[in-house]
Amino acid sequence: MGYRIFTSDTVHYKPSSYFFTHVTLLVKRTMLKQKTRFPLGAHLIVKHFGYSHHGIYAGRGRVIHYSGFAHLFKKHPIEMTSIEKFSHGKEIKVQSYHAAKYKGRKVVRRMRSRMHENNYHLIINNCEHLCTWAITGVESSPQVFKMMDRLTTIGYVSSLMSYMNSMLLTLTTTCFALVLYIKKKLRDKAKMQLPQILMKQEQHKNR
Fold first, then answer.
1. Same domain, yes or no, for 114 and 165?
2. Domain boundary at 119, 136, 157, which?
């Protein structure tokens, strides 16, 4: 573990560099384990360039998430994976809720009930929709609206500069077209969910 240095008066014990390296690795591993301890049913978020990925912590270092297009261009279903594969070495943040309808094991059970579902849609059924549904009972994805706002901003800026370049005119048209498409998809989803909402309200009144 080390070597001795003899002098005329005293004997000094100096640990070797291997010992320090080994201890450092053990400390780093311990810290890593501590960092991955999340509450059961926690909504985890990993930020990537241009978007964020969401999942629910299922315990024992596992995460249930809608992998979607996480595997390059091949669409994958809702699956359980390790927290390392979910985060890809990036920082993990926990989404807080002021009035969560479900917590802990109930959230995990709700996620498990949809395991292997393969209906991923970037706008109306993404990983964030799944996580908010599991905790609040309502599907929502704020990043979809943020994306729509960004596209609108880019469209307006490009339209102001389009007289300079025909490419900018094309960009403007594309951005506004995508915004209209997103709005249409959200409206269609709202229309599909309306009968279910009205039915639940009627059942609640009859109780």
1. no
2. 119
**Verdict on whether the full-model pTM lies above 0.85:** no
Helix spans in the chain (H) = 17-35, 83-87, 105-112, 127-136, 142-161, 166-206
3-class secondary-structure state, position 77: strand
Neighbours of 43 (CB within 10 A): 23
In a domain, 137, yes or no: no
Residues 6+ apart with CB under 8 A from 41: 56, 57, 102, 103, 104, 105, 106, 107, 108, 134, 135
Query: Do the domain assignments include residue 108?
Result: yes
Closest CA to 53 of 130, 148, 151: 130
Burial classification of residue 6, based on how many CB atoms lie within 10 Å of its CB (0-12 exposed, 13-18 middle, 19 or more buried):
exposed
Q: What are phi and psi of 54, to 5 degrees?
A: -125, 150
What does the buried/exposed string (b/e) look like for 156-185 if buried means 16 or more CB atoms within 10 Å of the residue's CB? eebbeebeeeeebeebbeebbebbeebeeb
Query: Shortest CA distance to 116 belongs to which of 86, 62, 84, 75?
Result: 75
Mean pLDDT by runs of 10 across the 207 residues of the chain is 47 46 43 66 92 94 84 75 93 93 96 94 90 94 79 69 64 78 79 70 61
